[in-house]
Specification:
The chain has 463 residues and is of the alpha/beta class. Helix content is 46%, strand content 10%.
Amino acid sequence: MDLFEAVRTDESGVNVDKHAPLAVRMRPRTIDEVVGQQHLLHPGSPLQRLIDPTPQAGAPSSIILWGPPGTGKTTLAYLVARAGGRRFVELSALTAGVKDVRAVVDSARRTLMATGEETVLFIDEVHRFSRTQQDSLLPSVENRWVTLVAATTENPSFCVVSPLLSRSLLLTLQPLDAEDIRALINRAISDERGLDASVAFTEDAIDHILRIAGSDARKALTIVEACAEGARGTVPIFSQSASGEDNETVTRPTVSLHDVEQAADIAAVAYDRAGDQHYDVASALIKSMRGSDVDAALHYLARMLVAGEDPRFIARRIVIAASEDVGMADPTALGVATSAMQAVGMIGMPEARIILSQAVIAVATAPKSNAAYKAINEAIGDVKAGRGGAVPVHLRDAHYVGAEALGHGKGYIYAHDCPHGIASQEYMPEDLKGREYYTPTTRGHEELITRRLANVRSIIHQR
């Protein structure tokens, strides 16, 4: 059987064009075939009700699908359209104008009045529509002449006009994880709509595809298809029968790691996201930032990104390093790292690489201090060892009835009433008087803290 025979009809009766890209042929036909996005597809969810063709589901609402590339926005739009036999019209914001939108809306309105058939209007890359183009959708959405399904990779709060946003249901798609993508690849290899088991893939070949594709299912299936096309020229293996005659033994061509490297033109990086390489390279990144070798830190960052490491994992490690290894030597480093972690979650790859680079550079080039790290560890050590005792009476809560009779708050000095805002009174429990946990360095901002802290402690302890 030819791997790419012309047309096949699937179980739903829809013709499947075998010349269409693999990602299109493998588009889920039912909600049960959707991989990932379970937070949007649980029973009773708005999207589940929108796809549900039963009368009990109610009138469909327009929706805006926001998520990274290859997470299933177009797939969900097709499922919405097929529910209840609705007409499906697709426009791309890259090529359509106001005239095209109005033509679709007019046609949908006439069809609805004449036959009662609903129209789903799918607009991909809706963030590329101008304000005028988006405004032209408002009457049709408000009057439900069409059910709008708009997809965007940009934050709708910034790229979709408020009136359209308020008339639509915003659904956020999450990046697919590696196992989601692996399941899609295996389905494409075995399913009759895909490769129909005519080509085999080694495990390391699939692992490399996962690293290259990241969370983009479309990209993963495109690479699978390219590899399969390259493998079709495999020469059959011949064997001899007992009578000495040649028998043709047809074997499935197998796609290896080398084949994927050639098809995608990206060398495999020695990196196992669940094994030693994951921890070794992450450790090297952290230690390079700690050691202020910004170039080495950027190398290990690049290795993790090219290998398909989750950028959110990288961002979390940078935040920890900003506090553990920089700390108060440069208090702004934690703010940069935290902002980077938030931005990576909103932006996604590939642009997230720039944000991570900035954060790594900020941490690696900052003055270093682990004083905050050591301080909390020493304090925790004392607590675990049972040292500390009762809270001094003058520091205890004195706001509830009966607290005054117990002496709570008696003798407490309000620091703001004292010179320099520092009161001469004991704050530590009795058995920890004089204990000092925080020992700032003389590097960066901590040089100022060192001088100030010596004066502060002398006032507090009346030295």
